[in-house]
Amino acid sequence: MTFLTLFAKADPAKEAVAQAANSGITRNLTETATNIPTVVQQSFQNVWADIILFGPKLVAALVILIVGYVVARLVGKAAAALADGIGLQRAAERTELANSMKQVGIQRTVPQIFGLIIFWSLIGVFLMASLGILELPGIGEAIGQVVAYVPSVLGATLMVVVGMLVASLLRGVIATSADRVGLSYAQQLATGCYYALGLLVFLAAFKQLNIEFEMLNYAILIVLGGAAVGFGLSFGLGGRDVVAGILAGYYIRQRMQSGDTVNVAGMEGTIRDVGAVATTIETDENGMMNRHSVPNVKMLNEAVR
Fold first, then answer.
1. Average of per-residue pLDDT across 160-175
2. How far does Cα 72 stand from its chain's mean position?
3. Which residue of 34, 55, 175, 276 pairs with 190 in a disulfide if CB–CB is 3.0 to 4.6 A?
4. What are phi and psi of 283, to 5 degrees?
5. Are 235 and 243 a contacting pair, CB within 8 Å?
6. Residue 209 contacts residue 187 (beta carbons within 8 Å)
7. pLDDT tens, 169-209?
8. CA 160/CA 166 separation, integer angstroms
9. Is 90 exceeded by the pLDDT of residue 217?
10. Residue in 107, 106, 117 with CA at minimum distance from that of residue 82
11. What domains can you pick out in the chain, each with its CATH number?
């Protein structure tokens, strides 16, 4: 009986606790429902305030972009016209840079590309100003880094054009000089020098763009060093005779011409060709025409017309 009595007495307490809990939940739900309109109203007010504050900035940014586009177009066209006026396209054609660009699918001329670089550089500047007004520093900094890279691109482009022009001029000089001394491989020598100089020019341009090719640089140094050592050894081991023959051939061309009759090495004949290191003499022996090769050094020292 005592246990049942205690159990019966405990039931009212549980009911009181349950009623209190239900009353608190009901009160919280009521307060939340009452605050929902206020919260929604405040949210809309904040959004509207942000729109009112951001609107003028957006308009100003758009105006700057429109003005920047117009200015960039005008300056870009002027830069392209100036580049064409100073002969940038002609220089590109003379150095075969224009043909190389067409082969890789670039149809625009070098002045047009120069104008486009100026155009997009100015667009980047005005875009940075617009983003600064909109207070978007992260995007502005990224675009600023791109714009800061543009001078390097312009410098590398100018370096390639001027460098390839110089390489083309040197190719002509080397070809003419080698041909005058009678080198049969004059064009091949000039072309090889042209491409070697072109490679050095492009490596310098890549360095201007902060693009490094360390392994390629080392390989070029090794090749050039090997070529220098090989040239030194060949000259020391017998190249002097070759050089002497080339120089003798040069002086023979100054004194004699193809078709001249000369006496040399105990024979009389007609000069047919003055090569790099030897001269071809054609003789008439008992009605038979024979050709003999006489070293240029011997020809220079002993030939008598």
1. 78
2. 23
3. 175
4. -120, 155
5. yes
6. no
7. 788 777 777 776 666 667 777 788 888 888 888 888 888 77
8. 10
9. no
10. 117
11. 49-179+192-209 (no CATH), 227-302 (2.30.30.60)
